């Protein structure tokens, strides 16, 4: 997807080209088309300060990010407290999850996908499965499930996160004891 600068330049070039041909054109720009998501600390005393934002992302990435209960950014784990929509952006309100620690190993070299990890409260949660996907729509469908079939066993989804440091979506699960 083109970023806004390139789209603006292409739009200007297109208008100049049409003016040279002396054709009439009406261009309607939809100001409600939102491609921004902003993360803010849920800190009323300090005016809910923004600490991270992403521009020019498509709708499915916004939906995937909204589905995540946690965000890992610069080795800090944040927990989602709420979401909102403002005039020109989606907003995620977060609090620092002081009792959570990020993974310290890279996920480099992996394609777009979701790590499925069996939740362990006081230790590293072991990876059960890496599910690669070709698009964010498939990632979203995986993130939004309450139960997952992993190697013939049913697991209940507990939480999900976007580990921005490792560029990875992660779903934490626990076994239900049901064989499928």
In DSSP terms (H or I, runs of 4 or more residues), the helix count works out at: 3
The outline comes out as globular
Give the uncertain stretches in residue-range form: 1-22, 25-31
SSE class? alpha/beta
β-strand amount: 35-45%
Largest sheet: 10 strands, mixed
Distance between the termini: 41 Å
- Helix and strand run: HEEHEEEEEHEEE
- Bin the helical content: 10-25%
- The value of Rg in angstroms is 20 Å
Oligomer: single chain
The total count of strands amounts to 10
Mean pLDDT: 83
Concise description?
By secondary structure, the protein is of the alpha/beta class. It has helices spanning 4-20, 59-67, 136-143, and strands spanning 36-41, 50-55, 70-73, 76-86, 89-96, 113-118, 127-132, 147-150, 153-163, 168-179.
What do you see in this structure?
With 180 residues, the protein is an alpha/beta fold. The chain has a domain at 113-179. 19% of the residues lie in helices and 41% in strands. The chain contains 3 helices and 10 strands, in the order αββαβββββαβββ. It has helices at residues 4-20, 59-67, 136-143; strands at 36-41, 50-55, 70-73, 76-86, 89-96, 113-118, 127-132, 147-150, 153-163, 168-179. Strands 1, 2, 3, 4, 5, 6, 7, 8, 9 and 10 form a 10-stranded mixed β-sheet that branches. Strand 9 and strand 10 (168-179) form a beta hairpin. Helix 2 packs parallel to helix 3 (136-143). The longest helix has 17 residues, at 4-20. The protein is globular. The two termini are 41 Å apart.
């Amino acid at each position: 997807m083109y970023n806004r600068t390139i789209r603006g330049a292409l739009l200007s070039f297109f208008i100049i080209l049409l003016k040279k041909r002396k054709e009439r054109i009406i261009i309607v720009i939809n100001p409600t088309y939102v491609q921004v998501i902003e993360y803010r600390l849920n800190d009323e005393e300090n005016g809910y300060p923004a600490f991270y934002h992403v521009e020019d992302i498509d709708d499915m990435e916004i939906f995937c990010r909204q589905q995540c209960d946690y965000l890992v950014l610069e080795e800090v784990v944040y927990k989602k407290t709420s979401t909102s929509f403002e005039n020109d952006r989606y907003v995620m309100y977060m609090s620092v999850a002081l009792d959570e620690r990020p993974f310290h190993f890279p996920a480099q070299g992996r394609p777009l996908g979701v790590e499925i990890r069996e939740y362990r409260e006081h230790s590293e949660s072991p990876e059960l499965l890496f599910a690669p996907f070709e698009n964010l729509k498939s990632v979203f469908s995986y993130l939004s499930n309450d139960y997952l079939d992993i190697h013939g066993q049913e697991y209940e989804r507990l939480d999900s996160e976007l580990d921005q440091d490792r560029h990875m979506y992660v779903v934490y699960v626990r076994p239900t004891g049901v064989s499928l």
